[in-house]
């Protein structure tokens, strides 16, 4: 099995690639438009330098060789969403080439090239017409083309995760805007699934296509070389509605743009969260997977760790971060964080009230229950639910449930309550 | 140029021709291409192509938002529906 | 006459000056088809005409194509902005042209232009209307455009001065493209001094056109003239002999003349057309019948059928060039035609820049006298293209050049062309300024004279 991807990622610039229109997402159609991104006769492109910087940074993160000089070409094809009937993109002189990304288990996925190009308009299909919104036309994109080195669904998942995490720290959210073409071949011929939007659909499309091709091969049929599309509703790939056209792109050099010397453009330094998680895990003898989960798409979490890793016990700090995420706390201040850590280290249950107190810097109310009080609570509960004893004999895990209820009600320290619950249940059922 | 190839060219360029025009233009094109074939005679491998007649240093612009003030004049050139521009169906 | 602009600005205009000008042009236009649109200006500046492929905000721009009928540009071309900013000019109309610039005679359009000096003959193209307007009006300047000779040719046939600057000197923003690496905006006028004024106003880098530059423009007035034998051989016998008489006059004015051989120069025509058509076929792809200009309102068709039907509005020459251009760009032949042509361009630029270091190229502007319209209509495409042999080399190589009359024969003008090295724009203008001190142009019309 060979899977290759052509991924389009939108760059977070303020203005579009070739004009000064805003890239902001708005609900009203045709607001951020001008003669250039609408392809009016007489208009001409003007390259945005931030797109160069970001594209260069992406190429760098993906370990690509970066060209000193870049230029652009016209890719000609006719579609209502393409205002000039050609897209300004790159071919030979693309900004990055021969890169690589290492995914899970050290597997190496080679990157063929990275190129800068403009987005077409948004098209809404209807029975009778196309409805076009040019807000999107001219948004800067980077296309990342991989070699067909991915050989399983797991690798595909890992690749997408790794790419997403690295791009996140550059300010790029690929879940939102990613558009990809998937090239999958289980047999000899390559099947292209075009225009899949979003990472979830990408994985589903791959899954379906792998099944489809596997099934064909099992019946002795060689999957044909074709272009397919992904139907989100039915979660299937389908033979492309548009006839495999004779479209010939007829590339020529873009004569309205010169060559650009980009050697002196700086690269944005950025964090590789996978490497960072490994580093922290080693340093603190902690599970790297958990750290990665916390920081992969959360710069704020990484920042908290970096600021506090020397101050507190790392385990507790990680727990605190989980709670911060769970309760969606924005901008926790140092004192609140300290109080949160105290609660955690004290073994107390963290709930809404806890959080609201620490944020207000108020002392957290703990239940003042004595041993007796808790014991009474446990016995009361068992009395009200008599068949718990019978069920406990069969399944010891029920203790967790009972303890959980008590903890909720009394806000007592979980460890102690559980210990006591088990002791009482055991004594009441005559077990150890 | 073979008929099949000529038809393919028409399809790619989205050009429709009447039978008469087709005959005429296909003929013309054959003559023109023969005339153009003379460039093949030129054989200098070491010369770089000139994409522009002069050397131009590219200077990109800063990432600043510049609103185009007169949007109505853009949309008034075409047909719209609820703010969307109407085009042919796909 | 040194500057009509200055003379106009120094005179007191009668109150109804522009009304009368407009009326006269309205009367003549159906015969000559110089203008696609005539405008009565409300200010009292020098009458200015703009070729109809250059955008003026709020005024229809069609590039003489049916597919752009109704296109109202929402912006001014930079060149128009710079001229209007001076507040010295008033736009009086958009001039007729060969559709999108495709032609050397001014007949590839709905309303073929006629030469005002002999209405059975062509006016030259593609800036036909600009040349006619300059030949009609005493006080006027035309903004025009050249890709392969579209300023020189009509200027030569109508007996006016036509200047094409070095590529990149004048911004192309707002020019409806024919071939982006070849298009240049330039001017026509009745004197070199007026050309100089226009160049002063419009030259220089424009942030909206990434190929425009701020390179220093010089004015080296060389006294050495070079004639390329391969080019002069292609000129009509009758024109050649008159041209040589002219060259003698120049010698008497202190110029030296040298003949040289440059056999690759013959490749300039095919190389030019290959590049121009390849680029043009991409520029014309945007015309699909629904965003601007001609709108096909038949939405029963799917997009492929819709586009093909809308694009039937192109004229025959436009269709021909789109088809050819698409072919040239196709993968199977791209190296053979397009890539080769780019190399030929480089070779010619290098060879010519050596020659032009200390000299000007001189030749007749056109190899033939303006043909009768009926003759022109029966020429094959290749015959058509071959008439550009003298104007294509400087256009392909982005060199500044200027056409101007040096004699008259049976009421028709004989024009010569001077070519300078890149950025020696003021140099070629100076040459013509000097010539004008020794020669007075003859004009059949002087509409608007005060």
Report the span from N to C terminus of chain C.
15 Å
| Quaternary organization | heterotrimer
Strand order of the largest sheet of chain C: 1-3-2-4-6-5-10-11-9-7-8
Portion in beta strands of chain C? 5-15%
Q: State the share of residues found in helices of chain C, binned by percent.
A: 25-40%
Number of domains of chain C: 2
- Please identify which CATH superfamily of the largest domain in chain C we are dealing with: Amidase signature (AS) domain
Per CATH, the architecture of the largest domain in chain C is Alpha-Beta Complex
- Number of E-type strands of chain B: 2
Q: Structural class, judged by helices and strands of chain C?
A: alpha/beta
What is the chain-wise order of helices and strands of chain C? HHEEHEHEHEEHEHHEHHHHEHHHEEH
Average pLDDT number of chain B: 92
Helices and strands of chain B, in order, run as HHHEE
Radius of gyration of chain B (CA) equals 23 Å
Which strand order do you get reading across the main beta sheet of chain B? Answer: 1-2
N/C terminus separation of chain B? 31 Å
Counting DSSP H or I runs of 4 or more residues, the number of helices of chain C is 16
Radius of gyration of chain C over alpha carbons? 21 Å
Q: What characterizes the major β-sheet of chain C?
A: 11 strands, mixed
- Largest interface, counted by CB within 8 Å of the partner chain's CB: B-C, 50 and 73 residues
Characterization of this structure:
The complex is a heterotrimer of chains A (432), B (90) and C (450). Chain A has helices spanning 49-61, 153-168, 174-177, 199-218, 273-284, 288-295, 299-308, 314-326, 334-345, 352-359, 371-384, 387-394, 398-410, 414-429, and strands at 2-10, 65-66, 69-70, 73-76, 86-89, 96-102, 108-118, 122-125, 129-133, 140-146, 179-185, 191-197, 226-231, 236-239, 252-253, 260-261. By secondary structure, chain A is of the alpha+beta class. Chain A folds into three domains: 2-177 and 240-261, no CATH class; 273-359, no CATH class; 371-429. In chain A, the strands form four sheets. In chain A, strands 2-6-7-10-1-11-12-13-14 form a nine-stranded mixed beta sheet. A three-stranded antiparallel beta sheet of chain A has the order 5-4-15, with no helix packed on it. The radius of gyration of chain A is 28 Å and the shape is elongated. Helices cover 38% and strands 8% of the residues of chain B. Chain B has helices spanning 3-13, 19-36, 71-75, and strands at 80-81, 84-88. In chain B, a hairpin with a 2-residue loop joins strand 1 (80-81) and strand 2 (84-88). By secondary structure, chain C is of the alpha/beta class. Chain C has two domains: 4-228 and 358-438, Alpha-Beta Complex (Amidase signature (AS) enzymes), CATH 3.90.1300; 264-345, no CATH class. Chain C has an eleven-stranded mixed beta sheet, with helices on both faces. The interface between B and C is large, with 50 and 73 residues.
